[in-house]
UniProtKB/TrEMBL annotation:
Keyword Transferase: yes
Keyword Ion transport: no
Reactions listed under catalytic activity: L-tyrosyl-[protein] + ATP = O-phospho-L-tyrosyl-[protein] + ADP + H(+); L-threonyl-[protein] + ATP = O-phospho-L-threonyl-[protein] + ADP + H(+); L-seryl-[protein] + ATP = O-phospho-L-seryl-[protein] + ADP + H(+)
Start and end residues of each stretch annotated as Disordered: 151-202
Keywords for this protein: ATP-binding, Kinase, Nucleotide-binding, Transferase
Protein name in UniProt: mitogen-activated protein kinase kinase
Length: 202
């Protein structure tokens, strides 16, 4: 998960608002690299506290301030990241939401306190809570998560690539085995030669 929000404190790069962080936009390469995709909703800001107002993205991963139509900043992406992290750890959404909920019902649902099952790694649980704070100013920044969170401290992201790469390789082999060997097309008959349909029994 650490690939999704790289700390850019030493780079002269304008902060970016992705605005649509969700599982469908997170890709894993065959080499084990996790990459964020689909930058159609991307917005550059002058600072990490720069504001945006546009309603864009996927509702179930939107932060409360975005759902309300308030201005928002990079903390909105941190919320989305927290929802994805919860889903990866638990296998379901942290909120009791349905696709057909109207905005008011949805906002009420995501304002409910979340509960992380005790079976989840306590360091990951702490990180999730830091991401899913209702007030954006109370959420940890990407830099704080990477530098201060116990879940990331002393962790080298490259350590995850080897087992992930092996898992991807195994999955690809399993899918190929299920499909079976590729079928070999029959070569076309030479021009003017007899075909099976032209044979007759004497």
């Amino acid at each position: 998960m650490s690939y999704l929000h790289q700390a850019r404190s030493g780079d002269r790069v304008r902060p970016q608002l992705h605005r649509d962080i969700k599982p469908a936009n997170i890709l894993v390469s065959t080499s084990g690299h996790v990459k964020l995709s689909d930058f159609g909703c991307l917005k550059s800001t002058t600072t990490t506290v720069g504001q945006a107002f546009t309603w864009i993205g996927t509702k179930v991963y939107m932060s409360p301030e975005r759902v309300r139509g308030d201005s928002y900043n990079t903390a909105a992406d941190i919320w989305s990241f927290g929802v994805v992290a919860y889903e990866c750890a638990v296998g379901s959404s942290p909120f009791k939401v349905e696709a057909n909920l109207n905005i008011f019902e949805f906002l009420k649902a995501i304002e409910e306190p979340i509960t992380v099952p005790p079976s989840v790694n306590p360091y990951l649980t702490d990180m999730i809570y830091k991401c899913l704070q209702q007030q954006p100013q109370h959420r940890s920044s990407a830099t704080e998560l990477l530098q201060d969170s116990a879940f990331f401290k002393g962790h080298d992201p490259t350590d995850d690539r080897k087992p992930l790469k092996e898992w991807i390789k195994q999955e690809r082999n399993n899918r190929r085995a299920k499909r079976g060997p590729p079928s070999v097309p029959r070569p076309p008959a030479p021009s003017g030669s007899a075909t099976p349909s032209s044979f007759t029994l004497s």
